[in-house]
Amino acid sequence: MVFTLSYSLCFLLLLLKLLPFSIIAQTYKNIYLGSSLIAQDSNSSWASQSGEFAFGFQKIGNDGFLLAIWFNKIPERTIVWSFDGSILVQQGSTVELTADGQLLLHDISTGKDISVSSSAGTGVTHAAMLDSGNFVLANQNSISSWESFDRPTDTILPTQTLSRGSILFASHTRTNYSKGRFMLTLESDGNLVFYTTKFPLDSRNFIYNKTEVSGFEVIFNQSGSIYVTAQNGSILYELSSNVVSNMQDYYQRATLGYDGVLRHYIYPKSDSRVERGWSTLFFTPPNICTSVLEGTGGGACGFNSLCRNDDLEGPSCHCPEGYNFTDPKDLLKGCKQDFVSQSCGEESQETDLFYLHDMRSTDWAGSANYEFFDSVSEDWCRKSCLGDCFCDIAFFKEQMCWKKSIPLSNGRIDLSSDWKAMVKIRNRNSSSTTVGADSGKKDNSALILHGIVFLISCSLFVFLCLIATCLLVYRIYHRIAKVSKLYPGIQGVTLRCFTYMELKEATDGFKKELGRGAFATVFKGVLVSENGKYVAVKRLLDTMVRESDMEFKAEVSTIGRTNHRNLVQLLGFCNEGQHRILVYELMSNGTLASFLFGESKLNWHRRKQIALGIARGLLYLHEDCSSQIIHCDIKPENVLLDDTFTARIADFGLAKLLKTDQTRTITAIRGTKGYLAPEWFKCLPITVKVDVYSYGILLLEIICCRKNFEAKANDENEMLLADWAYSCYNQRKLHLLVDNDDEALDDMKKMEKSVMTALWCIQQDPSLRPTMKDVMQMLEGTVDISIPPNPSSL
User: Fold this and answer.
1) Which of 221, 337, 370, 483 is most open to solvent, judged by the fewest CB atoms within 10 Å of its CB?
2) Which residue, of 231, 251, 285, is where some domain finishes?
3) Cβ contact 262:314 at 8 Å
4) 633 an active-site residue?
5) Residues 387-400: pLDDT tens digits?
């Protein structure tokens, strides 16, 4: 049976390849012989039938026009294919489907004709831009003889395959589409391999990621999965799995970025509830900074540079102290010294003109050490490097000293490492040249006069510096005292204090609203001072500032002391007059509520991961913080999703901190109707079990993708989710909770455990509810779950 199915699938794939594209594509517009496009500022393209893709000229800054294919219905006009990204033509150039069926690019500036479809066969009668993003030349029988899908650049699209020998080349930079420093290929032996290139040549250099699979093809299907198959069609290796249901509501692409990372992106087609933009579902390698280790070449960010990987924003390139980027438009080109190197002349070693700048968690792996010393002190290592004109970097660790000279390769910043680099830098007030022999012949009186002027100038400078330092210390002390007085609970917490004007400018006058609540409105912002970093700016309503001041202080003091992967990160705050503002990292996929109760539903696998993430975040708040924290308002609207759909607990405005010797407290009702534990209404002491109850309700919503109360339910018994869930569990009809969710129905054993966990969480008696640690073990399947009683029973 398996044999028959495998070869049936193989036959089906072969048949699809042989079918005319007119049968596979639903409809398309014919582009007939003699048709042409002109490169000009106004739109010059051939669009697909739906208008989702276009082929033509796209203007690249002020450099010229690129012949390309792009997403045509989104503002970004993201390019997915280009003809030789190194060729930018000027305005007035043309592309023509000639009378003999060739696609010809005419460059008006050189007068040359360049064949775009040089490999196309004879008999071409027309061309078409398909809704799949594939541009084809075809004969009268609609059989293609040339396709853009067969000649990918840096991107593949759904329905596109990579056969053995196919190559994706990363672009040079974000805006330069010529071949860059990285490539991905399915080799002749079937291995999927990432290479650095011998840039500017496009030949292979070193492997930085390899999957040995003996694959036949890489397939990107319309459901959002990217995988390697064998010749019989069986899946050997999955790069990216579908994590979002209703994938037809999203545009998709998989692109090998200019930084060497392969990313699977999605873009909502028309969903006003979430911020539109490309979101990352998957990327590989996980950390390119440590993956790239070239024997020859500069590494992930070029010579003398440092690569730093951030889980949320990916890799970024930096220069060490005393160095600047060689080309600010091409950060992967590396860094250069911004000072004159130490002289090696016999008469002057210039030792006193340099110092060593310490950089921790920093390494240039693979750079040759030209000297190594053992059983020495750090001070000895420093002096040795300062006295050595060839030494540009010294490393010290456990009484061992290494010396390296530029250019340095494979630089990385890894906070988990204990390496310490000492970078040699010229003192800013030192001269780049040495004093010559003729200087001793100057007139002594002139030297004395210069000396007196110099001493007076120095004395005046020192006096002014002393005054400035006193003023600065006073202002800093006054500011710290003010902040400490306002927020005594966050002493020692490193948060940036923003000015109101900074945040007003970052949000373009508080115009881009992301959402609003009873006390605050959240805006999208861009921090120019942080290299254009996107942030969420939460502004308390001016009329509610006094009433909400306690909530504001609670949120700053609570989340300011936390640090966990499943908690949203607070970056800073503003407290000027009536302005109370919090600045958070921006979560690109918005709230969990939009994916549970909206049109775009998350698949069962992703929902399980999100439920686990929320549980981990709550466990951290309840047990791993220095002060136990009760969130008090766990609900889908307060769970945000980053670009990889990782759950982040947010909105700590109602949070309650317990003292070291406290396990419970008495406080006014906090939270949202539907998620409140019974003890809130009984004037009983509040413990972390109120969060467990709220989590139980939320877990049921995650399982069923519906709200905890639906007045318009088909059956009156289904209005309250908690009661309905227990009824389905008790009657062995759990399939009703996930009707039409095939993935969940295929995983009924895991789904049943999740429902049982939720039912234990929402028990009326707090003592019966599990801790979040117990919840974690239940969801992970490491403990047996006993039969839960009816949560409604008293």
Assistant:
1) 370
2) 285
3) no
4) yes
5) 999 999 999 988 89
